[in-house]
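ok so I'm stuck.
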Amino acid sequence: MRVLLFFSTIAASLLFLSLAAAARPAETVAEGVFRFWKPSDGVVAWTSAGVRIRIEPAPCRTPPQTEGCSFDHVNNQPLVTVTAPGQPDYRTLGDSQSSFYRIAVARLQPGDGRPGIVLENQSGGSGGDVREQILLPDGSTYHEQFLPGHLQGELPARLSDLSGDGAVDFVLGDGSFDGAFGCNACTPRPPMVLSFRNGVAIDVSRERAYADVFRRALPDLRDRCFDRHERYRNGSCAAYVATAARLGQVSTAWKAMLHHYNREGIDIWRGCAASVPRGNAGADQRCFRTFPQSLAAFLRKTEYMR
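replied:
not stuck anymore, here's the structure
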């Protein structure tokens, strides 16, 4: 009798817990706000701007087989299902090499009747490489693409419309500076702004509407370039001049950089292919003797300067 009573109590408890779970309201995330997810979280679902997002580890039988499948029996790669009112479910896979992900539902273009999806794939590394996977509304489905360029860092916790055109903008770090001037972790990345125009994501950093992004970044970069106690400051000087160039202040920044860069530094961009003397295949192919020479060539190559 006591055994039956014990099991009856357990059954009643389980029923109560399942009813409580069913009554619990579904998680809601504000439009434009990122929701964090990692594979060990398992299946997670929430609603944002009327769109339901479900994310879960992809089955390990889904190629490619990831390290997570081999060691933890949980796929690193996420399977995302998007459910929007009146639309068929849309499913997509995220990156197979990232360690964690963030998803936001946001208006990606002015006048869009329904929002799109931003899936941030974070692979990390010393420069913080990131891939921004975009689901752009297209009729009754989505058109999928990635933000272009070598991007680093991460998007802010909440996406915002910086230009006032009714669509969010994306501010990340310019990954072309990755490893260009010696110590990679010592080189800050200048901001890079991207936005959608006619269904295509483009670099809009030069547009006047985004000047405040570069104005806010400039003081810290200038201070780091001017810090004579920082041995590896030349990477900061490179980012400082590049950021000033976006504001039309390259001449002033260049003159200041000449007074403060580390003349003893070996952090010179090696982006020039020198001719190697015959019989000396191991020769150093560095084409520049000074940091300012290499910086000028690098900023012209990356189109910060002409």
